[in-house]
Known about the structure:
With 298 residues, the protein is mainly α. Helix content is 76%, strand content 0%. The chain is built from 13 helices and no strands. The mean pLDDT is 85.
Amino acid sequence: MKTRAFTYILLTLSVIFWGISFIFTKELFLTEPSLSVTLLVFLRLAVASAVMVPTLALMRKLPRIRREDVKWFLLLTLCEPFIYHLCETTGVQLVSGSLASVVIATIPLFVPFGMWVAYRERIHPLMVIGVVLSLVGVGLTLLGGEGLTGNLRGMLFLAGAVAIAVVYTALLVKVVSKYNPLVITTWQNLIGLVYFLPLVLVFDRGNMAQLSFSPRMLLLLLTLGICCSTLAYAFYNHGVKKLGASQACIFNNAIPIFSLIAAVVLGQEGFSWAKAAGIVVVISGVVIAQLAPSGGRQ
C-alpha cells in the first residue's frame, strides 16, 4: 500500500510539472520572439542532459542500453521527445496554453484502446467511467475560462501529439521493466538531442544569437528541462511500471487543472466556482479509474 501511495505521489508530481509546462512554454514564446519550436525543445533537452547525464554517471547509475533494446530506445525517442514535442510545442505556439492542456488531457481516453490493440489488455469498465468523468471535470474547469480559441492547424498538431503519446506508451512497456525510469528518461533526452541537432543547425543558427538569455528565460528553461523534460517523464515511467499504462495515464487528466492554477498565479486567467467544481470532478474520475484491477507489475 505504501508503494502504491508513493507511486500516486510521483504521478501527481509528473502532471503538476506537465501542467505548468504549457504556461511556461507560452511565456517563453511571448518573451522571446526569435525562439522557434525546434530551438526551444533542443534547449530543454540540452538543459536536462547537462544536469542528469553527469549526475547519473558520477553515481554510476547510467548503464549502457542493451543491444537488444537499442531499437526500442530509438523508437521511444522518435515518439517522445522528438515527434511529440514538435507537435505539442507547435500547438502551444498556435493556441492558448489552457486549450492545449485540455487536448493533451484526452490522452488517457485513447491509451487503453492502444494497449488493447498492442497487447490485448482488457479495458475495464471502471477505467472508462473514470476517464469520461475526468474529461467532464476538465470541461467544467474550463467553462468560462479565457483564451480557449485556437486555429485548426494548432488543433491538428495537438491531435498528432495525442496519437504519438498513445504509441509511446505502448512502446514503453517493452523497456520499463528492464531499466530505472530515470535512466530511460535520461537516455531519451540524450538521443533526442541527436535527433534535434540537424534541425537546429539547418534552421536555427541565426536565432540562437538573438535570444536574450535573461535570468527569467534561464529560469523557465531550467524548469522545463529538469522538472518537465526529466523528472516528470521519470515519475510517469515509474507509474507505468507499477500500475500499468492505462491506469498511470489516467493522471494526465489533471494536467489542465495545474495549467489553470499556474495561469491564475501568473495573472493570465481568473478563477471561478465552475473551475473549482471541475477540479473535484477530475479528482473523482482519477479515483474511480484507480479502482480498476491493475495491469502493471508490482
